[in-house]
Amino acid sequence: MDRPKNKGVNMSEESYRKKRLKFRLAQFKKQWNIFYKSIYGKVGFYILVGFIVITVLSPLIIQHSDPVTYIAPPEDFYVASNQLTSHLSFNPKISGSLMRLTSTSSTPGGSYLVFDVGNTGNSYALYGMSVDNGREYRLFNISSMPLGLKAFTVGDYNKYAIAGVLSLSTYLLVYTDNTVYIAKINWSGSSYGSGNPSASVLKIHENGIVYATTSAESYHESYSGIPNFNEICNPAYIFTINNNGTYHVNEYTLSGSMAWSKPVINLKDPKYIYYGSLLGNSNAYNDGGLIISSGNKIMFYTVNGTLAYNKTVPVNVSGMYIPSAYNSGLNKYNSLFFYGNNSVYSLNLVNFTLHKIFTGTSKITGISSTAGESGFPSTFVVTTSNDIYLLSGPNKIERLISSPIHISGIVPEYSSSTFLLYDNSTGYLLYMEYLSSKDPFGWGLDLKEKISNPDFLLNSKTAGESIAFVSASNLYLYSTAGKDINPLPPTFHTLSGNSFPLGTNSEGNDVWSLFIGSFPIDLEVGFVVGIAILIIAAIISMFIGYFSGMVSAVIETITLAIYLIPGLPFLIVMAKILGPSIPNIILILTFLGWEFATFTLIGVVRGIKARTFVDAAKVSGASTMQILRRHMFPNMGPLLVYITAINIGGAVGSVSTLEILGLAPLTVPTWGGMLSGFYSDFFDLAIAPWWFIPPIIAITLFIMAFIFIARGLDEVVNPRIGGRR
Fold this sequence. Notes:
By secondary structure, this protein is α+β, with helices and mostly antiparallel strands. It has a domain at 510-724: MetI-like (MetI-like fold, Orthogonal Bundle), CATH 1.10.3720.10. The strands form eight sheets. Strands 2, 3, 4, 5 and 6 form a five-stranded antiparallel sheet that branches. α2 crosses α14 (689-717). The radius of gyration is 41 Å and the shape is elongated. Residues 94-109 and 281-285 have low confidence and may be disordered.
């Protein structure tokens, strides 16, 4: 039978434990008051609390959870490079697509002009702007408000056929409600494109003109062969539509003589597009013709005046588009693409079959594609105001891209798989060139003002592609090659909608996310190293300081030998050997840090061992572990906290040093890692201070916080310091 418990003894032990706990709480409160009265301790404590709060909140306030691998979209830090800004002496007509572009010679060495119609008071005129020098030329006057402008090129086929010389002439088509102007550009110099330009103007008078267009195209070097129409053998035709109570379609030669005129019944609000020089599947149509849309009707007139197609289509036509390759080769797949509301259709121009190739959920704002060649274009682009659909075939959506800008139109580049998206009302331009990439946009440009429809041209000065448009009273020319403006300064609005409160670094990383993401990692390294050093130093120092003999002496000698190893070189060598990882860095810093703490504590342990209460504990029969645990360790407490505070700050400083030197891992966000670029290029600090100043401040404050905390604890540990009195 068990012996009954002695309740008096149990009550006495419980009372002792409570009194001991109360005494320790009182001691802690007393020591805390001493620490908190220290200005250093108080400041250090609040700085540390701030770091801990940010660390806890970091998952909520960080913008990108993968800050090391996240790179801002190209449109945020690439912009179009301005090549020319020229002030116009006239008021350009920004609305619509009046401004058209053309080159005035066949080689990049010639002079190029950008044409526009403007008004000064009540008069109107046709102007040309030199791409080479930005000089403005007034070419000829126009009687009334212009309704449209088109620039096109024709060639001398005889010279090309006989001598192989590509001789080109630039023509302009301008029309008002009662006159069509056909102007040939002439140059005063010895060769085409040299000297000053002038215009030989031919006028065609009609009443009620609503639209005029030409069968010819603007010449571009990327097109093979000669222009489809020339001045002698295969003339460029001028088509007009007028309304004198009844709509008529009319065809004129480039010399101004009428070829034919046909009445059109049931035509309302006509929209039309001319499709190149090769249409149909026989010689009857391969000279091309005029395609007219009116509501939900599409008509096709050949250059001979034959109505070859007149059908009702499923939608009211809002726009038409024909890929460029279909203009230069007869192919059974040659098609006209048109759209209305939220659907896109193809109309085969060989057999006139109709197919729906896309249906979306929003109203379509534009369509475009790659060249086309012999089949469906490799990439077909459909835009709504907010989305971009890439089609790889009829009804095959390869990709859906959310647009960072409102889209009012799209322009394809001549011979590449690139497109320009724009918004007339706000002046946003977005260059889309990486169609299969996660970030498909090459660069962005935000002018914050209304612009005309932009267009591509071959720039004679740079021999590369350029983009031209008019905004306010200026003509702008931009290169299609993006200009890197990274690192970005702090901004809360970019073209893609991103915000970068601390800007970006040279790699395009979000500095804010790197900075906030570094708090947990750096605090983890600091505290893990500090606590590891605390544990190792406390155990070894108590063993060496309390025990005497050969084993203790050997361990003390080994500790001293490790302590005498040069710290930084050893740190670099070990980091290279073990590899750049956070666990390895923690291991190395712990290995190099415990010796100093151990030697600091050995003397304290020996001093405590010589005190009377330790001898009393031995006499009372307390075991060695009890003495170490109950008497030695508690009396080392404040000093252990003091040493730990120093080691935590030192660990963060050490790992930052390794990261700046490139010896620590840069695969995780750390303050030192953010400064690695500064080590390789000191100039970055001057041009992008937002990138380096935050981690410098963080490292400084973090180390300073623990220096201040250690200084405050020093007043607790050392009774002779003034703060204790």
